[in-house]
Amino acid sequence: MESDRYDVIVVGAGVSGLVTAGAAAHRNLKVALVATGPGSFVTGPGWLKAQDILCASAAPELGEAIAFFCEMARRAGCPYAGDISTAKYLPTLLGDFQSVALAPLLLWNAEPRDGVSTAVIGIRGLSSFDENFMAERLSERARAMSSSGTYAARQISLSRDMGAPVTTLHLAQLFDRDPGFRKELVYALRAAASGFQRIFVPGMLGLASSAEQIAEFKRELLCEVCEIPTLPPSIPGLRVFHRMESYLHQIGVELFRGFPVKEVVIHDGLCTGVRIAAPGHAMNLRGLCVVLATGRHSASPLNGAYAGRDQQMRPLASTGAVMARNLFIAESLPDSGAGNNGDAMRILTGYRAGNLAASTRGNHAA
Amino acid sequence: MEATQVVIIGGGATGAGILWDLSLRGISAILLEQGDIANGATGRCHGLLHSGGRYAVKDPDTARECVAENRIIKAVAPHCVDEVGGIFVKCAQDDPAFFEQWWRAAGEVGIRSHRLSREEARELEPNLAADILGAFTCPDAHVDVFRLVLANLEAAVARGGRFLTYSEVTSILSADGRVRGVRYRNTRSGEEDEISCEVVINAAGGWAQGIAAMAGVDVPVLCDKGTLLVLNHRLNRRVINRCRKSSDADILVPAGPVCILGTSSIRVPSPEGLAASREEVDHLLRLGDELIPGLVNARILRIFCGVRPLYAPMPVEVARGREISRGFALLDHGTRDGVSGFISIVGGKLTTYRLMAAAACDCVAAKLGVDVECTTDKTPLRPAVDRTTHHRAIHVLPHPVAEMMERRLGPETDQVIQAIETRPDLAEVVCECELVTRGELEYVLGGATPAPACTIADVGRRTRLGFGPCQGTFCGYKAMLAGFQTHRWTASEAATEFSAYLHERAKGQAFIHQGKQVEQLDLNYDLYGADRMLCADSGKQDGI
């Protein structure tokens, strides 16, 4: 193998691209991940809705793909709970309950519970989160679902002047960096939690803190703590992205962040790599195969020249011919007109593309 | 039952202009609007303050009216107008004979214009296609329609005028061939009431035919749908018109931080339930791309439809949308149909709203025996912000934020600044595209303003909150929280309001199927679990 050539070049670092890169790297391939930004998964709570699972349920390997994703998340240090056959109701930004199949562990235990009293705790200065609104709504919604759980609002003030308005990102960074902040937070939360069996806090418990640090934080609180989603910056989603990205880096995936792919180079039905617009010059990455996981929203580097994709997820030209036999498209096509198929479909197609890329590379080697 | 001299039906630019005009003449009046301000054609147009160029060839009378009104509106409502100027572009694909015809006609109706070579035109507007032949300048401008309507209403209120939003007229009361008043229903509470009056003015635009029918008279109004696209950036500094016989997608108006491309012209049976089709959107984009290459790939924030309520006294089978005069008609149903105390003002356009109001008010004044001339052409709609308030504003807010607020609120800025001085957390910017502070948000939701907002969309019309790329995803949520925190709504009412708002915003994005905005739609889905069916819903589309 030539040293400057990748086995797989993955374009796009949304949840689909991350899984593609992970699946390929697990098969000991040399992988490059090229992306302009983090994709939209990071702006949400990071959970997989039950309806998203339903969207992808026709695929026989859905279970395998989701299991792979969960394993990758566990190794990356952001474990998930739940599986494709469960569904439980977790609080949303609007104080509703959303049917969720899998969620990051910190969000997982927030379902309505009979007889359990929960404090929704806001933070002074964090204006995009309103604990009174959330507690009032959750009480109503829980009642409507015949749950006897109760919700009350509490607010804590943190002594340090963080400037107003405070964002969840700011709080999460302090949480990661500053043991003093964590200690202060524990004391404040403990006081506010007195008399409650469970507390909800806005998603802010660090981006990079290790599972052990989180476990210690939870132990010190003396009661159960769950994160609930906030407006972006949404820490639960960002956390999954950051951790998975550093995990991929650890297992040898090379990351090219912030560079748009200008062209997918195709000669005689074979894709030889991609051209990246690095500042001041174009850079060529050569690869044995390429996976586009850019989603339906991005301007595709194929420039809309395709008419669909075949069973092997390869793009087809308007003549119906395969554009390149070693080029694969995960996610929806940018102009397929398909709606948002949800994150489960993104994981599934990413997983599939990663495996297809691996088998293509095998063919080449042979 | 209340009593007043005049009831005005319709809270668009014309109705609001009438309320202001009557208040200047000392005639008491109440305006009833079925939705929020600028709910119909006014709130769903380009916001183009015409120079007259568009009508110079086809309809010189309307063009002359536009020339005069363009100058007047700029003088009496400078805070509503962005004097961007405009050009008429000569495209290689178009009829060269029309260019000269336009130049002559423009001179005849009095439009200040000069010729630009291709190079000069492209220097002014670098995004124009390289193969254009040249251009003519004109004094087009952009007008913030919501602010214009509000400015008229608020000025009228200061002189004793009144207006009620979400008040739908359900019947017109009459006796002995005379209109005596109206019955109306609050569409939010369901409560009904009556107002007795001497004159009823029908300024209901697309709904004028239905209102007239309540009094047993026929006012033929033809609804001509126009679809417009809001694009993410200002691709142009000036209004760009295509110099040809009026056709689709030949106007691009810079509007605040965005620009608006339009429009189509399709006859529809009613002003309700408008929807754009994907073909229509693609068609507009393709044509727009001829003027500005690359426009086809621009990020579309929103697609909306409005209706031009055209007065069509000829059989509607014959009339085609763009061929009907954009002139207006004042119908005195006393002489026309034997129903006295009832007049309709129909047709016309945004640019001539003041003239339409003046005509209607002259007629009403004559009926009531009031001998006062119209002065709306000389009376500023509101005083400027005084220096002291300005200095206090820039002391507590960054300059651009303070300036935006002053432009929107005028002298009312004082009250918001006072609030911010006592509660510094109100200085937080909640809508970053339009620089709306929490203080301003709470102010328009509160009871101190003459035109309080009832819904989050109402907040948008008063502050432009939610008009940028997020389309209310973030700032709409914060507006909802503000409504809850100021005890306007309970938590569940607030959530219901926000869901309704998201639903309305989603309809305007139903045909956006590519580009960056789709990412925003995915985000809505992730955040709020917004039903995917929403995005496929091609139902009624609302204003920008």
Please characterize this protein's 3D structure:
Chain A has helices spanning 15-26, 50-55, 62-76, 105-108, 131-144, 168-177, 179-193, 211-221, 235-250, 343-365, and strands spanning 5-11, 31-35, 48-49, 80-82, 88-91, 97-104, 117-123, 150-156, 198-202, 224-228, 254-257, 261-267, 270-278, 281-292, 306-309, 315-317, 327-329. Chain A is an alpha/beta fold. Chain A has two domains: 5-37 and 258-365, 3-Layer(bba) Sandwich (FAD/NAD(P)-binding domain); 86-230, no CATH class. By secondary structure, chain B is an alpha+beta fold. Chain B folds into three domains: 2-41 and 146-220 and 326-368, FAD/NAD(P)-binding domain (3-Layer(bba) Sandwich), CATH 3.50.50.60; 79-142 and 222-308, 2-Layer Sandwich (D-Amino Acid Oxidase, Chain A, domain 2), CATH 3.30.9; 387-507, no CATH class. Helices cover 37% and strands 21% of the residues of chain B. In chain B, the strands form five sheets. In chain B, strands 6, 7, 8, 15, 16, 17, 18, 19 and 20 form a nine-stranded mixed β-sheet that branches. In chain B, helix 10 packs across helix 11 and helix 15 packs antiparallel against helix 16 (491-507). The two termini of chain B are 36 Å apart. Chains A and B meet through helix 5 of A and helix 15, helix 16, helix 17 and helix 18 of B.
Supply the key terms.
heterodimer, A: 366 residues, alpha/beta, FAD/NAD(P)-binding domain, four-stranded antiparallel β-sheet, 17 strands, B: 544 residues, D-Amino Acid Oxidase, Chain A, domain 2, six-stranded mixed β-sheet, 24 strands, globular, disordered C terminus
Task: Write the topology of this structure.
The complex is a heterodimer of chains A (366) and B (544).
Chain A lengths: L4 E7 L3 H12 L4 E5 L12 E2 H6 L6 H15 L3 E3 L5 E4 L5 E8 H4 L8 E7 L7 H14 L5 E7 L11 H10 L1 H15 L4 E5 L8 H11 L2 E5 L6 H16 L3 E4 L3 E7 L2 E9 L2 E12 L13 E4 L5 E3 L9 E3 L13 H23 L1
Parallel strand pairs in A: 1-2, 1-14, 2-11, 7-8, 7-9, 9-10, 14-17
Antiparallel strand pairs in A: 3-6, 4-6, 5-6, 12-13, 13-14, 15-16
Chain B lengths: L1 E2 L2 E4 L3 H12 L4 E4 L15 E2 L10 H17 L4 E2 L3 E5 L5 H14 L5 E3 H7 L9 E5 L2 E3 L1 H14 L3 E3 L2 E9 L2 E9 L5 E5 L2 E4 L5 H7 L6 E11 L7 E4 L8 E5 L2 E5 L3 E3 L9 H14 L8 E12 L16 E5 H5 L4 E6 L5 H16 L18 H10 L2 H11 L3 H10 L6 E3 L4 E2 H8 L10 H8 L11 H11 L5 H17 L8 H13 L3 H5 L8
Parallel strand pairs in B: 1-13, 2-3, 2-14, 3-10, 6-16, 14-22
Antiparallel strand pairs in B: 4-9, 5-9, 6-8, 7-8, 11-12, 12-13, 15-18, 15-19, 15-20, 16-17, 17-18, 21-22, 23-24
Helix pairs in contact in B: 1-5, 1-9, 10-11, 10-12, 15-16
